[in-house]
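Hey team,

Filing this mostly as a record. A colleague (T.K.) asked me to run one chain through the structure pipeline before their review meeting, and I want the input and output archived in the tracker in case anyone asks later how it was produced. No errors, nothing strange. Just documentation.

Input sequence:
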Amino acid sequence: MRIKFLLFLLFLISLPSLSQEKAFDSFLADSVMKHAAVSFYVIDADSGRIVFDYNSGKSLIPASVMKLVTTSAALELLGPGYTFRTTIGYTGDLNKRSGTLKGDIVIKGGGDPALGSKEFEEYYTDFTGKWIDEIKKAGIKKINGRIITDDSYYDYQPVPPVWLWEDMGNYYGAGAYGLSLFDNYYEIHFKTSFDSSNHIITGVFSEECRTELSDRLIVSGTDDEGYVFAAPYDKDGWIAGRIPSNEDDFVLKASIQDPPLLMAEIIDKKLRSAGIKISGDPTTARLESSVPEDVISIIEVTSPPLKDIIEELNHESVNLYAEHLLKELGKVFKNDGSTLSGTLVINEFLGNAGVNTDGMFIEDGSGLSPLDAVNAKGLVDLLFYMKNKGRYFNEFFASLPDAGKEGTLKYYFTDPVFISRMSAKSGSMTRVRSYSGYIKTYADNDLIFSIIVNNFTGPSRYIVAHIEEILKEIVLNE
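Output structure:
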């Protein structure tokens, strides 16, 4: 009888793990997973005790959960109050009596990822108008020179070389420049009617961002399969693919191909409109192959603090901001504002945090590259470090969207089981779904998890539903 009782106790103790394994085993057995790969890891957030482990060291494409790596490194190394500065000034000699400047107006970029962003209007309210006012207050009435943007703060390779061609012309594939502007994208608005009918471009916002794009779009169906094909620094490109029928206001978001030059053109136009004469045409340091020296500052714009930028970055999965932070890390710690230098800094940070970087291949800051590869254990170990040893965990945790409530998780994990219990970063691209973050169970245990799924077949929402069931059982039973 004693043996039977002990066996019964062992059976009861094993029920939670069996329940968890049931959901996961069902996931793996599904036909959509026949050719797929999974890396899944869960630990106790305080002790590090392993709760669940399946291929935790397997390297897979992470998509946007890569942003957890970039943002944790940026917070820890730069600090939550770190800011970026954009300066406007002039070179040469200014005759105060005549108001004639023999030199150039210089807009000096400082790597601000959010300059002019609609998401941070309180920081940038009519900043170009204020610049014009300050130039006039400085007594400048005539410029024997040009408006020039000094965009040399970062390198002149705004897009990582491992990104896909189909991405870089669209808003999510916008590059990171020494001076970025308006989140480096603009909107093209369309009106469509029935399938195969002609479509109408009803507007471009902001109008000054307009680029000459050949139009090869087809109106068909209900899905958005329209793409912008354009490279950084080019002056043209094309739009192609399918856009949905019967839309009064369908929007494609195209990347700005040369934000530094656009900035120079905007200030040039505003100054001329204000009655200030300018002899030369607007340009950039890149185009001139020289950097303006001895710039006398007139006014500068300061970005939001880094913690606010990172909160927007992780909530809405903003690729541009992640690429800026990667280059900023390279600039600050390697004196080289490049993607490569940024990845070197991040790998050093991970090593110092005790994260094993074997099998982690970091090619960009956002996870947009299909050549990125990480594993669930590496991500969980990083999140464990941030919670238990990181100086700025509160800011980092606040940057993660709450399940079923906000950001990229607003319409996912909406089951009441997850509400106020799960904060995580999501990642998605073709045949890739991933989630990493923090969970509190019904037994009040804090857990850290990461799951990465590659090369599944069938609809992605079906995969997410499986992941929700797996995590739900962990919340209920662990």
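Quick notes for T.K.: The first strand starts at residue 37 and ends at 44. Residues 164 and 326 are 19 Å apart (CA to CA).
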